Each structure stands twice: as structure tokens, then as C-alpha cells.
DNA sequence: GCAAAAACCTTATACTCGGTAGCTTTGTTA
DNA sequence: TAACAAAGCTACCGAGTATAAGGTTTTTGC
């Protein structure tokens, strides 16, 4: 994600929330329409991925023409990043990464709770799974977003684990970075299998079992 | 994957290898062209996913028109399944699932070797990662293929682990199914992070560390 | 309270993509 | 070498993203 892109996302975010300062404020009808479009797009991207979603269908469900939709979001890509920003904002309320519970065990148990919550939201989980899968391609519009997301997540978890080590709660020889990456990998991998075949996988229980075993292994 | 689909794949496979019996055999030039198309498609699907790949581009690289390409593979979906069949055949040589080394530790170490091999083949890994990510959507053409693949993999690994239990090598209270799912999840999740940010992740080492810890935990 | 500006949203259009129809050329084989 | 299937082309369709240009509605500044 280059500087131009970042600037565009910021502009879009502020336009969508109607908080442009020097600029003119959007109309009330437009704000409502944008919010509606975002919610529909969230669903569609989650069900069909980025490339499998058509603007025409989103526009139809939002009851305007496709060109009308592109008035609010100048491109499909801009719509995607707006949706991702929306999701990030919603998630921030649930799991504040910059303020994880301190120490190893509380952090890992918070992740178990997150997985249990996700198990009740297949649509959202699918959005992230499909998008991050697509986004490993370097030229995908969400590639930079996905990189950034994983960096933030893994450093947050690793830091929390490292605190556990310093507090003497976890083994001194623990590789916090690798452990954080493993935990995230387990979450993503279980999600994938769960989405493909929900009946064959009790995602929350399997993840909990993994974390239980991990805690036995890394506790001091 | 329904019966019609399976029949189509079989027909394609035999046509592609030029082993039609009652039917006339394909020309040598056609066989060569098909092989070339498959290799190019393998690359393109791996780099851009299914929906991100265009037949026109594959045709251009194979030096024929898009309609000419569709003479050999009647649809994009048929081309995809042919590519997947090709990969499965290539993989079968490397890791024969129906004949995993018996017992827990040898099986898990074989998977470590597989991950080490994958770490040298980012293109192929990307093909599977992008495709399985896309394929969680129920109407994706590779959805059935992905389901089938995971069922086969997980039962193969679970069976091998169960043998380890029966032989007294692994703990009697091991949940072989859940353990197999966890191991696969770890492989997939690490691949995802590795593809997104290769420099931040030593995939093979991290997976090996996970397996080492797991073995300590589940050994009798 | 009224003009001007901006936002909103439309129709029309350009280009790309997967796929079909039908025709010509080329290679194989009897 | 004649018959015939494979190979590959042109031409086209419907659907996709995106742009251009224009008309209508709402807000804002005076």
C-alpha cells in the first residue's frame, strides 16, 4: 500500500463519516446510502470474495445504478478498503490489540474467547478468510492491508507473551515471535477447514484444546 | 463435486493424456499445446487465483486465440480442474497419502519434510493457498475439490496417528482426528503468513518447532 | 431567502472477460 | 490421396468495471 493509496483511504473514511473539515459536508441521504452500501458490500465480499463480487449486484441491492454507486466510491477497490476499514473499526471494539490483557495466559484465553465468538459469525469469518487468501497475490488491492494486519496482530501477541516471560509466568526460553505466529496460524487454518466443512470441525473446541496444550508446554 | 462434474474431469484427463480408446487420438501438436497450456495455467492460477486469471492472457502466452484455447478446454472451470488434477498427480509422487509411514512420529516428520520442500516452491504453495481461500465459497468451482482434499488429508493423518496410539507409541487419550486437523491448520496458517511476508517468517523452522513440541506432548 | 456550488444520480459509452457458433485449415489414417 | 476429425480462426453475446456528460436536489454563504 503506497502513500497515494493511504491518502485515498483516509479521505474516503472521513468522507464516509461526514467529518470533512475544510470540505463541504455530505447530504444526510448520501450518508445513509453510503452506510447501506457498506453493509451490503460487507456481505457480498464475504460471500463471494473481492473478484467474485459485482458492483452491479451491490448497486441493485442498494437500489441505485451501478454508476450511482461509483459516485460514492470511485472504484471497486476503494469500496473494498472502506469495507475493511469498517470491519477494523468494529473489531477494535471487541479486541483492542493495543491493550491486550497483560501476561501469557490471559492473552491466549482472550483469543480462545475470540474464536468462540467467531464460531457464531461465519459470514464475517468468511470475509477475512477469502480476502486474505486472495490477498497473498502481491498486486491484490488488499495485499498491503493484509500485511499490515498480520504485522500488527503478531507483534501484539508476541509482546504480550514476552511480558509473560519477563514476569516469570512463561518459560524463559520461549520464542515469543514464533509462538505468536503459530497461534495465529492455528486460528486461520482451523477457520479454513471449518468454513469448508463445518460439520467435521468443532473449531472452538479444537482451538481451545490447542491452547490448553500450548499453555502446559510454555508455562514456567 | 457431483457425479456430472466427476465424469467431466475423468473425460478431460483421458483426453489430455491422449488415451481415448474408441475415439480418435489427438494430434501430436495438440497434445503439446495442451501440456503447454496446463503449465501456463498452473502459473497464472497460482499468481492470480481462479477469478483473477483471464483466459485471454493464458491464450496469449500459449500463442493462440482465446477461442482456440477453449477448443482444448471447454471452459475456464474445466481448465482449472485439469490443472488441479495435474498437481495432484505430481504431489502423489512426493507424498503418497494412502501409504504414509506407519506410526505417529514418522508421519509427522514426513510432514515436516513436506513443508521444507514447499518452502522452496512459493508458486505452487500460492496456487493452493489462493484457491482454497477462494473455494470456501460454496458456489466456487473448486469447492468440492477442496472439501475432498481436506477430508482425504485429515483422515489419512488421523489414521496414521491412530496406528501410533494402538502401537503404544502415542498416548492412549490422544484425539487423533482433532490432532490431525490441528497439524493441517498449522501448515496452512503458516503458509499464509509466509506468502504475505516471507521475510518475517521462517516457515519450515516454525513448523518444525511446532511438531517437536507436539511430539513431546503426545508421546506415550 | 436566494443564488451558487456541491452532492447526488442518471443515461450513454468504452473496454475487458468468459463463452458460443460456425467456418477454414491442418494433420492422420485408411 | 481422399475422408475425416482435430485444431484454430473470426464474429458475436451478455456481463463486468469504469468514465463522461448532463440533469436534479440539497446545502451553504451572502
TrEMBL record, chains A, B:
The keyword Nucleus does not apply. It holds the Pfam family TetR_N. Residues 54-73 bind DNA. Coiled coil: none annotated. One of its GO terms (molecular function) is DNA-binding transcription factor activity. The keyword Transmembrane helix does not apply. Residues 1-28 are annotated as: Disordered. Residues 31-91 form the HTH tetR-type domain. Residues 9-18 have a biased composition (Low complexity). Gene3D superfamilies: Tetracycline Repressor, domain 2. Keywords: DNA-binding, Repressor, Transcription, Transcription regulation. This is TetR/AcrR family transcriptional regulator.
